[in-house]
Amino acid sequence: MKSTNLVYLLVIFFLGASLVILKDGKCGLEILDSYTQEIMGNNVGFYVKFKNNSTKSIDAFDYKVNYLNGFNELKGSKEFRWQAGNLINDLEPGETLKDGATNWVKGANKIKIQIIRVHYSDGTVCK
Questions:
Q1: Contacts with 7 (C-beta within 8 Å, 6 or more apart), sequence order
Q2: What is the CA radius of gyration of the chain?
Q3: Is the model's pLDDT at 19 over the cut of 50?
Q4: Torsion angle, CA of 117/113/50/54, rounded to 10 degrees?
Q5: Where are the beta strands (DSSP E) in the chain?
């Protein structure tokens, strides 16, 4: 992670993050918590905690973050991917995972997270 990204994420937590209640789980992948922060009229980043409630190991998933204003009007959208690799283990049943990203979305003060698809270690995909 770049040092500037780390600084932005720290700003989110130390300035008081807003709890986001707009979240959709899918395919046994639940969104437990999510937080975001608006500073000077811009959304500067988010944090999300996922839990594998399926009976299979997950080795990749895609999710979408919609950035909304106070009137629930869409101000922007970005897709993200998490995937296991050489240093990152699969997400086993019952395990949790924390993810987050910095961004700069003008006018957004909340987010809605949606799971797009989940890839299990046995090769199956859930959409």
A1: none
A2: 15
A3: no
A4: -40
A5: 18-19, 22-24, 29-39, 42-52, 58-68, 74-83, 96-106, 110-120, 125-126
